[in-house]
Write a structure and sequence with these properties.
Blueprint: E1 8-13, H1 17-28, E2 33-39, H2 42-52, E3 56-59, E4 62-63, E5 66-67, H3 68-78, E6 83-88, H4 93-102, E7 106-109, H5 110-113, H6 116-129
């Protein structure tokens, strides 16, 4: 019997275009991951979230015209099951605590843990395809 891979639909929220491009390249190497949108600012991120209702989001804390924490809050208010990876250089304890309290599933440091993002999505995709959401 053939198995169909479940698609993990991901929103990228990052203001630096080169970092967004690197993230997209990294995630597209994971079978079953689909990038449904990319945003550099809060308003665009929220609009894309509402339009696409992704399964997951990768969010930086510092984004243009707003805050990644506000994006995280919005996502988790609307869908607690949406996996959110905070990927940031703002690694101070108060940022980590605030994000985890708001429901972030992961809080990763860009400079040291960038490649871990792909592992998170490999794991998520595996669970979706096995029906273990």
């Amino acid at each position: 019997m053939l198995t169909t891979r479940a698609t993990v639909r991901v929103l990228i929220v990052e203001d630096a275009a080169p970092v967004r491009a690197r993230l997209i390249d990294l995630l597209l190497e994971v079978p079953g991951v689909e990038i449904v949108g990319e945003a550099a600012d809060e308003a665009t991120a929220l609009a894309l979230y509402e339009e696409h209702e992704p399964d997951a989001a990768v969010v930086d804390i510092r984004i243009r015209n707003g805050s990644g924490i506000a994006v995280l809050d919005h996502i988790k208010r609307h869908n607690r099951n949406c996996l959110v990876v905070m990927l940031t250089n703002c690694v101070q304890l108060e940022f980590r605590q605030r994000c985890l309290e708001a429901g972030a599933n992961f809080f990763l440091e860009k400079s040291r843990e960038f490649s871990r993002v792909a592992n998170v999505f490999r794991h998520l995709q595996r669970h979706k395809s096995e029906g273990l959401e």
